[in-house]
């Protein structure tokens, strides 16, 4: 039975039912009598799933729902010989069900992709013997060795070795973090350079990454499909329809009038009001590179009064760039310091070194061949360039190589802004420094300002350090900053904001944002450069990196919610008029079905108008958004 219902509920069979219904209508108009009314096929194809659903709701859930009213109306119409009316009601409701189903379908592959980032095994060191063992066999207290380029399988503490760890999967930090003995490392993060030994502290589900997986899974399970508004009203809609039909029959003695009341009372337009508007809004958003996964997401977006932004890849471009070059004396020019540093870093795989090389090439500077290249993970590099010994790295690295350092105001200012600093020494003499930082998106401050004008507060949630976060926030106009957050801590901040009465929209791009995206009232993922996991966890995905789509989404959501309410009111008004005319015998079941379909047609037309309207160029206040003009 279930397989039969599933087959009949599909799009193809519903189309077949519509063809039979059209044939029945054509026969009525041409006054041609079929041996068997084609509408019977529509009743079976589109009606069986509705009847099955009504029975399930009553028997399984003890719930009065709209399918019950539709079932009663179909059987009543068939009882008095109005098969076309029964088929028409079943067909319209089947279309509504298909449209609604399409608006709430969501891909759930994100959990599998998230789990795939955890290595399946680890190198356990026991009595100086290295053994590859399955992840499940690793216990807290075990010593593990992690080679360059490998993912760290557990949360642990480094006991030997120096390295740089790419923690972007957890914290979203744009730069690898230098690590040494005594520093903590986390499951799922990438060991970039040096070989390290770690002591396992937390394994499996207890690890940071394991908890991240569980949080995303919990958030997915807590998401429920948007419930049909007519189902919410079914507890009084069904009794009201039956009561009016019964009163009509007993008052007039005319069963046709009573059946007509049941037919026009069927919530065809009401059922179509939400899914058609949502489909139109989803289509409108898709034109501008925004993927909305559910109607619930649209509605919740309109209620948002707090936008929580991730930093890296969301408000910034997610790539490092040279933001300043400082020289220690007149003996060196900025170009010379950059050229020598870039030449030395040309053999480096470190993101900071690559950014320096890229900057030098973009400025057209000459790069010289580097010899005797050496790299000390977490500290810096050394190389010979044109017979001169170049050191690039941290203050500690230069001091270990007997280089005297001195501070100057520009360098102190760069440090206070949270920028990464590469100190450069030439032949044992401090030559200068190169500051690097993530690049803030040009329209970030405009987006924050526009959201503020629409009554939406912006906050920053980031895994970066406090100085970097506060500097960026000051540049884009965000007043509330929460820095140094792991994924679970971002989730807690989201929960705190919601507990304070805020409707929160989380905007992020990385795996580390996935739990927060799932916990917020509505999650928006940066799809172009963001991870697949973040996109799957979010209810809305921006297929470009243009965050100016966020204000657009809010306007579109407001318009969609308003139109849904208008369409519902319109359909109810038409039904009220149709019921009155039915009681007065001015409509019969067939004409009543056709008249009340007027509401369905108007609902679909209104949805079409929503699709064609422009919510990009101007807001309700008439403000032009130049970022969208290029579209």
Write up this protein.
The protein is α+β, with helices and mostly antiparallel strands and 631 residues long. The chain folds into four domains: 2-106 and 224-281 and 556-612, no CATH class; 118-212, Calcium-transporting ATPase, cytoplasmic transduction domain A (Distorted Sandwich), CATH 2.70.150.10; 290-316 and 441-555, 3-Layer(aba) Sandwich (Rossmann fold), CATH 3.40.50; 318-438, Calcium-transporting ATPase, cytoplasmic domain N (3-Layer(aba) Sandwich). It is built from 24 helices and 22 strands. The strands form four sheets. The chain has a seven-stranded mixed sheet with strand order 10-22-21-20-11-18-19, sandwiched between helices. Strands 2-1-3-9-4-7 form a six-stranded antiparallel sheet, with no helix packed on it. Strand 18 (457-461), helix 19 (466-476) and strand 19 form a beta-alpha-beta unit. Helix 3 packs across helix 5, helix 5 runs parallel beside helix 11 (268-287) and helix 11 (268-287) packs antiparallel against helix 23 (549-583). Mean pLDDT is 81; it is low at 104-111, 219-227 and 617-631.
Total helical elements: 24
Question: pLDDT under 50 segments (min length 5)?
Answer: 104-111, 219-227, 617-631
The chain-level structural class is alpha+beta
Strand order of the largest sheet: 10-22-21-20-11-18-19
How many individual domains?
4
Could you tell me the mean pLDDT?
A: 81
Biggest beta sheet summary: 7 strands, mixed
Tell me the fraction of residues in β-strands, as a range: 15-25%
As a percent range, the share of helical residues equals: 40-55%
The coarse silhouette is: elongated
Tell me the distance between the termini: 50 Å
Number of strands: 22
CA-atom Rg in angstroms:
32 Å
């Amino acid at each position: 039975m279930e397989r039969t219902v599933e087959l009949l509920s599909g799009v193809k069979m519903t189309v077949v039912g519509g063809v039979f219904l059209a044939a029945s209508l054509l026969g009525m108009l041409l006054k041609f009598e079929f041996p068997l009314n084609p509408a019977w096929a529509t009743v079976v194809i589109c009606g069986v799933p509705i009847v099955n659903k009504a029975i399930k709701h009553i028997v399984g859930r003890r719930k009065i729902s709209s399918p019950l009213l539709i079932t009663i109306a179909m059987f009543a119409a068939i009882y008095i010989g109005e098969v076309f009316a029964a088929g028409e009601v079943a067909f319209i409701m089947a279309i509504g069900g298909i449209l609604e189903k399409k608006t709430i379908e969501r891909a759930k592959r994100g959990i599998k992709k998230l789990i795939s980032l955890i290595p399946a095994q680890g190198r356990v060191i026991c009595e100086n013997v290295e053994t590859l063992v399955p992840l499940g066999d690793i216990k807290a207290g075990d010593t593990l060795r992690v080679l360059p380029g490998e993912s760290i399988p557990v949360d642990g503490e480094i006991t030997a070795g120096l390295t740089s760890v790419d923690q972007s999967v957890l914290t979203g930090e744009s730069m690898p973090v230098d690590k040494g003995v005594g520093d903590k490392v986390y499951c799922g993060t990438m060991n970039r350079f040096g070989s390290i030994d770690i002591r396992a502290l937390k394994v499996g589900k207890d690890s940071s990454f394991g908890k991240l997986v569980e949080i995303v899974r919990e958030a997915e399970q807590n998401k429920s499909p948007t419930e049909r508004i007519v189902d919410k009203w079914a507890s009084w809609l069904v009794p009201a329809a039956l009561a009016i039909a019964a009163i009509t029959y007993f008052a007039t003695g005319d069963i046709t009038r009573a059946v007509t009341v049941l037919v026009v009372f069927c919530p065809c337009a009401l059922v179509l009001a939400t899914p058609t508007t949502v489909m139109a809004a989803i289509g409108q958003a898709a034109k501008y590179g925004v993927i909305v996964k559910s109607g619930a997401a649209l509605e919740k977006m309109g209620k948002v009064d707090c936008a929580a932004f991730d930093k890296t890849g969301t408000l910034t471009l997610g790539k490092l760039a040279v933001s300043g070059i400082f020289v220690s004396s007149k003996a060196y020019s900025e170009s010379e310091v950059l050229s020598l540093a870039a030449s030395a870093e040309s053999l480096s795989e470190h993101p900071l070194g690559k950014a320096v090389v890229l900057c030098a090439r973009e400025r057209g500077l000459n790069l010289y061949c580097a010899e005797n290249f050496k790299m000390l993970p977490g500290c810096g590099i050394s190389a010979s360039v044109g017979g001169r010994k170049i050191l690039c790295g941290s203050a500690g690295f230069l001091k270990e190589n007997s280089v005297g350092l001195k501070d100057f105001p520009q360098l102190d200012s760069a440090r206070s802004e949270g920028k990464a600093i590469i100190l450069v020494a030439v032949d044992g003499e401090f030559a200068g420094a190169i500051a690097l930082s993530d690049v803030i998106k040009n329209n970030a401050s405009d987006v924050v300002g526009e959201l503020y004008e629409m009554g939406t507060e912006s906050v920053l949630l980031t895994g970066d350090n406090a100085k970097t976060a506060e500097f960026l926030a000051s540049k884009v106009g965000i007043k509330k900053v929460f820095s140094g957050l792991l994924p679970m801590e971002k989730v807690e901040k989201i929960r705190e904001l919601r507990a304070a009465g805020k409707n929160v929209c989380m905007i992020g791009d990385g795996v580390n944002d996935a739990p927060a995206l799932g916990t917020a009232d509505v999650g928006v993922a940066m799809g172009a450069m963001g991870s697949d996991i973040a996109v799957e966890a979010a209810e809305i995905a921006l297929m470009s990196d243009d965050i100016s789509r966020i204000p657009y989404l809010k306007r579109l959501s407001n318009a969609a919610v308003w139109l849904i309410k208008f369409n519902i009111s319109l359909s109810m008004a038409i039904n009220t008029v149709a019921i009155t005319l039915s009681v007065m015998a001015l409509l019969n079941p067939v004409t009543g079905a056709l008249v009340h379909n007027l509401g369905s047609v108007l609902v679909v037309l209104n949805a079409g108008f929503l699709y064609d309207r422009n919510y990009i160029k101007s807001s309700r206040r008439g403000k032009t958004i130049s970022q969208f003009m290029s579209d």
